[in-house]
Amino acid sequence: MAIALLHKPELLILDEPTVGIDPVLRRSVWEAFHQLKEEGKTLIVTTHVMDEAEKCDRLGLMREGRLIAVGTPGELKQETDSNSIEEAFLVYGGVSS
């Protein structure tokens, strides 16, 4: 990630950036993401970890290569009457109601 930030890009696309790291480092990575956001940078993060997705401002949920929902974590949870993004994903994915 340090190399990606070297040229101070306005947009970062990060594919599963916290896979395989310990919780302490994971927290510091998300703190860095929030700092970059405060600096006006745009970050696109892909993840299968729903509690990480919940840290994002907006989500696009995908299943089988299709976009099944778009919105803020709060909107998606409210629309599905869910307590978590994982529950909302299951509703949008047709697994739960």
TrEMBL record:
Q: Where is the ATPase AAA-type core domain?
A: 4-48
Q: Name the residues that span the membrane.
A: none
UniProt cross-references to InterPro entries, sorted A to Z:
ATPase_AAA_core, P-loop_NTPase
Q: Which domain of life is it from?
A: Bacteria
Pfam families found in the cross-reference section: AAA_21
Q: What is this protein called?
A: ATPase AAA-type core domain-containing protein
Q: Which organism is it from?
A: Siminovitchia terrae (Bacillus terrae)
